[in-house]
């Protein structure tokens, strides 16, 4: 309540879910993604349902200078962000050698570079918000259960998510005692447009969770007095991540390689 939350990737899937829950809790929103029509429709829906104000900023986060442009835009509109949800991201299914340079670079640009630059640029605002809204300031970076092991045919994607997990856990430590809640969310397969965008027809053998399940798992972690450095949504996903951590790396990559066959 009385704060502004910025959600990247708010045109689809988890981003829409996060925007709804933040608006339901009384936050005004900044919604960004490339598809302007989707963002505008969401802004209207949030206003009607929760009475919140949304600012829509269409942006391609893979473009050089996109984050600087977004930060400039926020400053010009005098918007101070109290909660940042770095949710925008995509994967590409297939071996690295067969992927186009755009798809390979794009994953690093959106999942890693934009998330890092935006976290860095907005951290001062988030820390200020944590002082004025002791339970209302958060940095949520969306990683994945792919962060816990290499995944052949999703090699670049899994590596970007390992980076997001590592960065976020270090930021969690660096900001301890400030009141800012920092966490990396690690969903497993979730029912969004992710697989269509990745050019993969199915999610593999694991249970596909709903957006609502992942969003409520995220907020359950944020609502805890001591927010954990990462949250894995779903019991079987927690088990898989734990197994990957205690098994020999060679065995792990062999298993994930077999499971990621079409
Ligand atoms: N679904 C899963 O199984 C799953 C599992 C683990 C983690 N995740 C992670 O969850 C996050 C959300 O994905 P999702 O599952 O909700 O997939 P999604 O439905 O495809 O949504 C992805 C969002 O990212 C935005 N985006 C992609 N490329 C962008 C770019 N270049 N510039 C700006 N925005 C961009 C998209 O918006 P536009 O296309 O309009 O730009 C869209 O709003 C991602 O970080 C993903 O890696 C998903």
Which percent band covers the strand fraction? 5-15%
CATH topology: Rossmann fold
CATH class placement = Alpha Beta
Tally of helical runs: 9
Could you estimate the helical fraction of the residues in percent?
40-55%
Q: Tell me the major beta sheet.
A: 7 strands, parallel
The rounded Rg comes to: 18 Å
Mean pLDDT: 96
Low-confidence stretches: none
Work out the count of structural domains: 1
Structural class: alpha/beta
CATH homologous superfamily designation: NAD(P)-binding Rossmann-like Domain
Distance between the termini: 45 Å
Strand order across the biggest sheet? 3-2-1-4-5-6-7
CATH architecture: 3-Layer(aba) Sandwich
What small molecules does the structure contain? NADP nicotinamide-adenine-dinucleotide phosphate
Secondary structure: number of strands: 7
SSE series:
EHEHEHEHEHEHHEHH
Keywords: Oxidoreductase
GO molecular function: oxidoreductase activity
Pfam families: adh_short (PF00106)
Organism: Cryobacterium arcticum
Helix-strand blueprint:
Layout: E1 4-8, H1 13-24, E2 28-33, H2 36-50, E3 54-58, H3 66-76, E4 83-86, H4 101-132, E5 138-142, H5 155-174, E6 181-186, H6 194-197, H7 211-223, E7 230-232, H8 235-246, H9 249-259
Bound molecules: NADP nicotinamide-adenine-dinucleotide phosphate.
Residues 9-15, 33-35, 59-62, 87-90, 110, 142, 144, 187, 189-190, 192-194, 197 line the site of NADP nicotinamide-adenine-dinucleotide phosphate (NAP).
């Amino acid at each position: 309540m009385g704060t502004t939350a910025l959600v990247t990737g708010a045109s689809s899937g988890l981003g829409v879910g996060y925007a709804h829950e933040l608006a339901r809790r009384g936050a005004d929103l900044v919604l960004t993604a490339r598809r302007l029509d989707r963002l505008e429709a969401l802004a209207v829906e949030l206003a009607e349902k929760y009475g919140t104000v949304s600012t829509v900023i269409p942006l391609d986060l893979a473009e050089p200078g996109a984050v600087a442009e977004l930060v400039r835009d926020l400053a010009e509109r005098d918007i101070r962000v109290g909660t940042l949800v770095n949710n925008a991201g995509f994967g590409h299914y297939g071996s690295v050698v067969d992927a186009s340079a755009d798809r390979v670079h794009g994953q690093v640009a959106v999942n890693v570079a934009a998330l890092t630059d935006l976290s860095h640029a907005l951290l001062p605002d988030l820390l200020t918000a944590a002082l004025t809204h002791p339970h209302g300031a958060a940095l949520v970076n969306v990683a994945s259960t792919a962060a816990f092991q290499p995944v052949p045919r999703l090699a670049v994607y899994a590596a970007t998510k390992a980076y997001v997990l590592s960065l976020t856990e270090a930021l969690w430590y660096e900001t301890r005692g400030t009141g800012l809640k920092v966490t990396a969310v690690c969903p497993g397969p979730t029912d969004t447009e992710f697989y269509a965008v990745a050019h993969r027809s199915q999610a593999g053998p694991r249970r596909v969770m709903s957006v609502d399940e992942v969003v409520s798992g995220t907020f359950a972690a944020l609502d805890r007095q001591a927010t954990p450095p990462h949250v894995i949504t779903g019991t079987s996903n927690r088990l898989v991540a734990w197994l990957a951590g205690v098994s020999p790396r060679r065995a792990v990559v062999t298993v994930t390689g077999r499971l990621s066959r079409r």
